[in-house]
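tokens incoming
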């Protein structure tokens, strides 16, 4: 069967094969006429045809599998909730970071001593919101592990609400500045990354910052938290705040500082656990990106 169409520039001829087989050449004679040329947009050799067939089969299989999987009717609502949550946290930590940076440039070291009184309200809000990061994995809204989220959120809340929030003697110390600044620096890159992930967008620079900045900042943040905790120990010993009553034979009470010393050890164990978890995430992320490139 032959179909042809003539134009001012050329004559297009479509020839349908009687038998499904590969042709060695277009004409009976070995040398192709100069005026005759194949349409390379439609040209296939055997390897191309195999790849095309394999792609079609994969598409069919994918459609078949997807048709059997029940689609989540609330997926849009879940993504909307996660996007708004990450946006709110990004705005909150950005406010803290920008204000602390401006105050540092204007006031210099004097800004170290009133960080808590100027930033505490917003930090309280952000850290109370962070409790949702423990709840979200339990509800299956995110793939992040429950344990790493629990370690980070509970660790920060102990420092913020117990060490800084209750002890007035700690609120004017420079360590508050370093803890708040390190926390906010990490989060102003983490939350936008999750926001873009909610809408299926990947910004290469932001991805690199999210998976690289934590390497120096996360251990520095834990060290700053540890310094704050150590500085609070003599205050708890002196005030006997949160001390546990004991039988008269054993003594009057057990200082809360002993519990904090135990927590200090747990905190560095948590650093090791979370550091290993984040390292695996980083390797897995860049391994998958390399596969996509290849």
């Amino acid at each position: 069967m032959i179909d042809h169409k003539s134009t001012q520039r050329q004559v297009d001829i479509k020839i349908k094969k009687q038998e499904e087989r590969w042709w060695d050449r277009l004409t009976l004679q070995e040398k192709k006429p100069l005026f005759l040329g194949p349409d390379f947009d439609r040209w296939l050799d055997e390897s191309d045809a195999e790849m095309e067939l394999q792609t079609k089969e994969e598409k069919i299989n994918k459609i078949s599998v997807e048709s059997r999987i029940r689609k989540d009717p609330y997926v849009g609502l879940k993504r909307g909730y996660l996007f708004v949550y990450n946006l709110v946290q990004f705005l909150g930590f950005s406010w803290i970071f920008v204000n602390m940076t401006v105050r540092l440039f204007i006031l210099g070291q004097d800004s170290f001593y009133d960080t808590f009184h100027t930033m505490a309200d917003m930090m309280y809000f952000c850290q109370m919101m962070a409790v949702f990061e423990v709840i979200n994995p339990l509800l299956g809204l995110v793939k992040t592990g429950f344990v790493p989220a629990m370690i980070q959120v509970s660790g920060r809340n102990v420092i913020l609400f117990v060490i800084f929030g209750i002890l007035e003697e700690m609120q004017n110390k420079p360590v508050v500045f370093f803890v708040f600044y390190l926390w906010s620096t990490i989060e102003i890159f983490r939350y936008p990354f999750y926001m873009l992930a909610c809408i299926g967008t990947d910004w290469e620079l932001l991805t690199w910052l999210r998976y690289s900045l934590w390497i120096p900042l996360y251990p520095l943040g834990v060290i700053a938290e540890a310094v704050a905790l150590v500085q609070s120990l003599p205050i708890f010993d002196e005030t006997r705040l949160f001390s546990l009553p004991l039988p008269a034979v054993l003594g009057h009470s057990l200082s809360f500082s002993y519990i904090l010393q135990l927590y200090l050890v747990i905190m560095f164990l948590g650093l090791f656990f979370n550091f290993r978890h984040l390292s695996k995430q980083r390797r897995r992320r860049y391994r998958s990106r390399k596969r996509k490139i290849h």
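note: Strands lie at 2-6, 11-15, 244-245, 253-254.
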